[in-house]
Amino acid sequence: MSLSEPVAALEIGTTRTVIAIGEPLGGGRIKVSALSAIPSAGVRKSQIVDISQARYSVQSVLRNLADQSDYSIAQAYLAVSGPQIRTKYVNAQASVEGGVVHDEDLQVVDARSEEASLATDRHPIEISHISYSLDDMDNISSPKGMSGRLLTLRSLCIHGSAQRIADARTAAHQAKLELPEVAFAGTCAAAAVLTPQAKKDGALVIDLGGGTTSYTAWVDGKMIYADVVGVGGDHVTNDIRVAFSVSKTQAEQLKLNDASAIISAEDANARVNVPSPSPGFKAATISRRALNTVVNARLLELFDIIREQLDTEGVLHRLNAGVFLTGGGSALPGAVELAASVFGCNVRVGSLVSAIEGLEREPHPAACAVITGLLLLAQQDETDSSGILSTLKNLFSRSK
Fold first, then answer.
1. Residue pLDDT, tens place only, 45-59
2. Overall number of domains in the chain
């Protein structure tokens, strides 16, 4: 593919289905030239539960894209998340020929790391090489030229359910869209907001989605941990619905228009109007403090789960660049402050890296981190055979 040819990315999320077109600009940059999003149907916790409804969502978003632009696409990269995502650490080993590490030794151990043994119902999505060991010396970034006998490469393998990925491909295929490659949504979000320096210093990216939350931790330029928590913005909406006996639509409006993740003293006597279910109904009110208490409890639970896991893995103290929030949930007032109180470090809403252009007028670009990050990875993949998605192609070929 030449640099002038566009790339397409698709995300079939719990809350919305999004498709975007990126025009490569050269130098590793890309311009988002078209983006279309519609409410999803047939999706729960980022997984398809009704193929016919998901197919309709893909058809509808493709139609919207064609209506607002000159693009008609036949294939796209797909971002995946949800409880289907799992990870495992892989330690691949190779004997060092001649007692000094050469390129051939690195190639052998790299290839073996990409042959991670998975169950037949699991599909490899990504391999992230973390560090090398040489005999009894650990945490080597580049062992070439060093003396030793046994070379070990530690990697993180991200894999998904073969059946769930097949469901997404089926829904898209029925909508006349092929999905030749998939990528982990957490990696995509990180590509959209983390600079190389942030990845080197140590950073955590939390993508607050509708049905699930993906997160990735980066240290020394490598992704060293990744996971998905089955909690997202829809759970906050449902908590509000149950707590105040309102409809899902009313609860969503309360979350978007009036809620905060922080409980403040000013909320004590304040009240907010509950959106009327239909004209003619008398408007009800609820306590703002009670509303924020409900939202705070759910997000606090989510952040505590992530913090505890990173602490257990020994990652938390290495996040010198801080925490970056992305996804639609990052727009919730107080989310940054609450996360900062939990993680004890600098937290911010992620800003798109300078390599991504075209969304300068987007009111909340962090909500587009997954789809734009996937575009960036896709166009880099087309010009760099060592890119994340190129490695993915090798994994696919071995798994078929």
1. 889 999 999 999 999
2. 2
